[in-house]
Amino acid sequence: MSKIFLGYTSMSGRNEKIAGNLKSYLEEKGAEVDLEQLVDADAFRLPEYDAVITVTYTYNDGDIPDEAQDFFEDLQDVDLAKTKFAVLGSSSKSHIHFGRAVDYFTMEMNSSNGDQVADSVKINEDPDDDDYARIHQLADYVLKSLD
Ligand SMILES: Cc1cc2nc3c(=O)[nH]c(=O)nc-3n(C[C@H](O)[C@H](O)[C@H](O)COP(=O)(O)O)c2cc1C
Asked: Which residues form a coiled coil (predicted)?
């Protein structure tokens, strides 16, 4: 059975809800999923997983959320050793640098020798049905990469 790390950070609940939805979707398809908040997660353990999915909002003029900074900095010292990964997140088009934390995580996980298996997905505020279709498509790409 494939083991997937699903790490998220969420201030007002949107990304927590997305991560919960993704967990159910992946488990229905037979994956084993460890769901953790990034503030509690150990980036050095990521290579133990078959795949890593990161779900993040964006804060303060395009920044990574404060509580995810330690995880992000540790990622720079981790060799992901071609671990499959995907990144997504809800942020808001009403701010500048829409979803830029998604871009930062995508770049860093590529730099840390991860294997990106789906285009990153940015969601504007609350996900609608089309957004959930994109979220599930990302999950399908992750699962397909593990076949
Ligand atoms: C103070 C503040 C700053 C924000 N800055 C940005 C930003 O720079 N870029 C962006 O795309 N969204 C920004 N957002 C929007 C959040 O990323 C968005 O509301 C997101 O859906 C929150 O996710 P959550 O419910 O999981 O916490 C900001 C929100 C707040 C409250």
From this structure: none
Residue 50 contacts residue 146 (beta carbons within 8 Å): yes
- CA separation for the pair 113, 46 (Å, rounded): 12
Q: pLDDT tens digits for 115-144?
A: 999 999 999 999 999 999 999 999 999 999
Q: Which of 59, 64, 103 to mutate to test the pocket of ligand 1 (most atoms within 8 A of CB)?
A: 59
Residue 127 contacts by C-beta under 8 Å, 6 or more apart in sequence?
Answer: 14, 17, 18, 90, 135
Q: What is the pTM of this model?
A: 0.98
Q: Can you list the domains of the chain with their CATH numbers?
A: 3-145 (3.40.50.360)
- 87 Cα: distance to centroid of ligand 1 (angstroms): 16
CA distance 133 to 112: 29
Ligand 1 interacting residues, C-beta cut-off 6 A: 10-16, 57-62, 90-92, 95-99, 125
What are the tens digits of pLDDT across the range 72-129?
999 999 999 999 999 999 999 999 999 999 999 999 999 999 999 999 999 999 999 9
